[in-house]
Amino acid sequence: MGEPHESRIYSDFARFYDSVFGRVFVDHEHEVIESLNFRPGHRVLEVGVGTGITLDAYPPYVHIVGIDPSADMLAQAAAKARENDWGHIELRQGDAQNLDFPDNSFDFITSFHVMTVVPDPVRKMKEMVRVCKPGGKIVVINHFSSPHPVLYALNTMINPITKHLGWTTRLRVSDVLNGQPIKLERNDRVSTFSVHHVIVARKEDSAGA
Length: 209
Ligand SMILES: C[S@@+](CC[C@H](N)C(=O)[O-])C[C@H]1O[C@@H](n2cnc3c(N)ncnc32)[C@H](O)[C@@H]1O
Hints:
The chain is α/β, with parallel strands linked by helices. The protein has helices spanning 9-12, 17-34, 71-84, 121-131, 149-165, 173-177, and strands at 43-47, 63-68, 89-93, 106-112, 132-145, 182-191, 194-203. It is globular.
């Protein structure tokens, strides 16, 4: 096991995810989703939907597609959708780095705590921008490494350990944002050893795919 996405944490521990990681992430993710201006008929793609801890935060008048490569994580999300009779939610297996959707398909692309898990986060971001409609929104919550050289060096030192657990500590926010045809509307940071970001970006109107 070499890369974060190969960690078995997202398969073996899917049943316990909500009571461990989910508990830490859920309130903040709901708060950010509830701040978005959804309109009836909007199409939303959640990339790396996991066990679906966000699903009840979306209004029922939007259509949500949630993708994740882990069948075990998706099974937990599917159980929530079934129990709540959520006909507006569609769940499928998929890879953030090769999104199986045409260009300009969604009004919102959301992705929470997945950027530091995939092998190629820049490609993931490009794919999210590609499938977003011009003028649509890309919404990311993730921790990123501090750009400060000393903190970045420390993050690099602990990376071999966190990679085994299932995420990298080396990714900087500039690595994924620079060069994309997007305009940042929100980039809130809680700066500590690593930096926790809430990013809301609008795909430029002139950007095709
Ligand atoms: C830390 S969990 C976050 C799950 C969910 N977004 C949340 O906030 O609870 C990381 C998720 O990324 C998923 N993942 C791993 N590799 C991926 C990939 N290539 N494409 C999409 N999701 C991926 C994992 O299966 C897991 O569900």
